[in-house]
Amino acid sequence: MKRSTVETLAPWLTTLALFALWQLGVMVFHIESFVLPTPIEAIQQIYINRYPLMVHGLATLTTTLIGFAIAVVFGLMLGILVGSFRMVYVSIYPILIGFNSVPKAAVIPVLVIWFGVGTVPAICAAFLLSFFPVVVNVSTGFATIEPELLDVLRVLGATRWDMIRKIGIPRSLPYFFASLKIAITLSFVGTVIAEIIAGNDGIGNVMLIASSNFNVPLVFAGLLVVGVMGVGMYAIFAALETRFTSWSVRGGGLGVEYAGGG
Amino acid sequence: MSFIDINDVDLIYGGQTGAGDGTGTLALANASLSVAKDEFVAIVGPSGCGKSTILKLISGLVRTTRGVVRVGGEDVRGPLKNVGMAFQNSTLLPWRNVRDNVLLPLEIVEPYRSQPKSEAAAKRKRADDLLATVGLADFGDRMPWQLSGGMQQRAQLCRALIHEPSILLLDEPFGALDAFTREELWGVLQDLWMHRKCTVILVTHELREAVYLCDTVHVVSPRPGRVIASREVPFARPRTLDMTFQADFVDLVHACRHHISLGTAS
């Protein structure tokens, strides 16, 4: 088989193998379905509840994307500021780190007090979880610009905005896209946590109701749906990354990516 | 009347107050240098002697701790505009192809910056013509990483010259190249300069390169740096590589080396 074919098949095969192992484990150790259902049971639940799961899945996806979009715009702007002005860096970085160390699940009840139960706290949670890697990566891209590059522009009489536009932004694009892949998955985490704690709809809410009915297979069905949506969005941003930052990959490198935050 | 005039300048790096409080590194002390309009000068000296610092002073990227730098009769108070610069390492932008890299200064410097979009084709042609003069006629569409080190330096020279700067500052531009490529590029640079004169300051540690290319070679002492000797280079242009093996050329190179070793010994 060709190497590229193997590479395309590999993730599917490992996923299948993992599911098989899971199925086998449950069967061999006679684990009850309300403790750990088999993947087949979970997938059955997806099929049985396909319409409600689709509606709630779309709700979760929408919430996630709104929170994510706000995080990207905000993170990009803050990242540029942090990366290009030393004073901004020294004054707000400790606050950012401290803020990111706060467990977001603990903040959601406060958000509910402010905005009530529903979509808004979930959007906030998606935003809060995902903006940090964007800020860190974009500012790293800016902060690691070779000084000679800036000197070349400076002695042409370039303004600071010129340098941000001509060098800073294109130079940080690979960092930015790497952070999008992390941020989108974290957004899902934020949304689902908020939906579990204080949602009226969304996959998180489905899972909460299912677990209170001891319908554990449906809980796992929800987890699978979120996982699949996460992989899908990740793939979209990975494709965008390749499209826009092909100059930075050349021969594929070592296959190492800058993760940065998370 | 000199075009660039560095008059008895001190420079301290990294001091707490920026003034001579003894906490920083004294990079230059009582340094003086003058360069005539359209003169091609070299600054040579042992490594770490502040050669590159002199370039930064002239371009206004670094301010003096004491003393004045004048360019064109005016005190340098901030980064100059319209200077061309090239470095030892390729500073081509990896996300732009070679032509767009060469065009970068025209996006910054007036009057090109404000020119309407309709000028774009003319600018493109100008970049391609310049690339052709350095032997990169068909490389405009390539990405920088597809070029060899020598080709990248050729492209860098084009970028430094496209906006026809009055001053060209070269910081060991051929330092990372092999000997053959380096000697080839000496010829390229000489042609470019003879074709369109500007004031060039070349920092190098390669004495043959300095004597081959320059009108005047300035020797800088070890840190704290200052110019300890200046030698005029009398040879007619265009100079050839054969000339570099003739006795009077070799003598001049030896004389410069002698100045450097004297400076290092004292």
Describe this structure in words.
The complex is a heterodimer of chains A (262) and B (266). With 262 residues, chain A is mostly helical. Chain A has helices at residues 3-28, 39-48, 50-84, 86-101, 104-115, 119-143, 147-154, 160-198, 203-212, 216-244. Chain A has a domain at 76-244: MetI-like (MetI-like fold, Orthogonal Bundle). The radius of gyration of chain A is 22 Å and the shape is globular. The two termini of chain A are 37 Å apart. In chain A, 39% of the residues are buried. Chain B is α/β, with parallel strands linked by helices and 266 residues long. Chain B is built from seven helices and ten strands. The radius of gyration of chain B is 19 Å and the shape is globular. The interface between A and B is medium-sized, with 21 and 28 residues.
At a glance:
The complex is a heterodimer of chains A (262) and B (266). With 262 residues, chain A is an all-alpha fold. Chain A contains ten helices and no strands.
List the helices and strands and how they pair.
The complex is a heterodimer of chains A (262) and B (266).
Chain A: H1 3-28, H2 39-48, H3 50-84, H4 86-101, H5 104-115, H6 119-143, H7 147-154, H8 160-198, H9 203-212, H10 216-244
Helix pairs in contact in A: 2-10, 3-4, 3-6, 3-8, 3-9, 3-10, 5-6, 5-8, 6-8, 8-9, 8-10, 9-10
Chain B: E1 4-13, E2 25-35, E3 40-44, H1 51-59, E4 66-71, E5 74-75, E6 83-87, H2 98-103, H3 120-133, H4 149-161, E7 167-171, H5 179-195, E8 199-203, H6 207-213, E9 216-220, E10 227-232, H7 247-265
Parallel strand pairs in B: 3-8, 3-9, 6-7, 7-8
Antiparallel strand pairs in B: 1-2, 1-4, 4-5, 9-10
